Amino acid sequence: MQIDRNTLGDGQMAQLFANNREWAAASLARDPEFFSRLVSQQAPAYLWIGCSDSRVPANEIVGLAPGEVFVHRNVANLVLHSDMNCLSVLQYAVEVLKVRDIIICGHYGCGGVAASIQSGSMGLISNWLRPIRELAEFHAGTLEHLRGTARTDRLCELNVVKQVANVANTTIVQDAWHRGQKLSVHGLCYGLGDGILRDLNVSVSV
User: Is 179 marked active-site?
Assistant: First the structure.
């Protein structure tokens, strides 16, 4: 495969480079030491496990700068015990960065959650979303009385609750608690329509 490197300076990519230069310049204007601090140390207090959805930028919606939150994202913010990517991020955050809070953040209107309960296969992504379909089946008695967005939004919340439990039950978090490490796991849901985070009141700590 041959890559035409000239295309990197054209069209949409050119705009990204221009945006980047403006952002870097503005960051330095506000704080001349901004990048030197980032280079010297990464010391976030939070691990954010969220959805890949482009409308949910972790740093921005909680007002934190680069370096202040360690982020892992995947479709529908799942924490699966077979996902070495997510577990590696979790281990690094807990054991090396020593974060104090792990945030599982779902969002209302999640396309992954909605897709998980649609009929028919969507290909590979259907395998990834299978745990949410199983969750919906487990909570069928609750969900069957809801319609439209109310149903999927409730499933978004139930999914976050389940992922909080999954994180808390990992050997990584259990071992940290046994060591006496201060660590809490929280479940939040973000509203695309109003930009507000909701605390689902399922925090776990020891």
Answer: no
pLDDT tens, 1-18? 565 655 555 688 999 999
Instruction: Give residue 149's identity as a one-letter amino acid code.
Output: T
Active-site residue (options: 105, 110, 156, 189): 110
Contact yes or no for 49/167 (Cβ under 8 A): yes
Q: Which of these is catalytic: 51, 105, 156, 189?
A: 51
Cα distance between residue 149 and residue 146, in whole Å: 8
Pairing of strands 101-107, 46-51: parallel
pTM, full prediction: 0.90
Structure tokens of 50?
């969220």
Assigned token pair, 166 = 């999954």
Q: Active site includes 110?
A: yes
Please name which of 177, 8, 167 lies closest in space to residue 81, comparing C-alpha atoms. Answer: 167
